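Supplementary Note 3. Input sequence used for the single-chain structure prediction.
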Amino acid sequence: MEGYDEYGIPQLVKGEPLYKYYARLEKSILSAHIEKRDRILKFINTWFSYRYTNSNYFEKIWYFKNIYYDKMPRNDKSKEFMIKYFEEYNEFFKLDLEYEEKLFTTYNVLYMIKLMLKTIKGDLKREIEESEIDKKTIKSKKYSVRVK
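The predicted structure, written as discrete structure tokens, is reproduced below.
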């Protein structure tokens, strides 16, 4: 296709006004960003389906907000999930992570989500909430996705 290289990246065509080239370039960048965001959402929803019956747990990526660690899939389910989907998402997002099956836990899934979010200038924030029950301090971790 004229105006694009073999990888689908817009190239300036001789005689084309710069504003048209920049519009094509911006559209290409935006579509890549949206595709990555949607893949991250699919990753999270698939992961949560290992604990809950709903396979579309979050409608939008930013709905992953103030989710307590206790409500996430347990380590055994996270391990099962990572065994199945690790390679696919590691390759797609070019994360260069090593496949280490015995280390797959819920925290590893969260770390992978954090790395995927960095590719779209997002982040996974962790907050620690402390509460006192029967004179005992209980710490709860909750996570939220932040995207621009």
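The helical segments are 18-48, 75-92, 106-118. The chain has one domain: 18-146.
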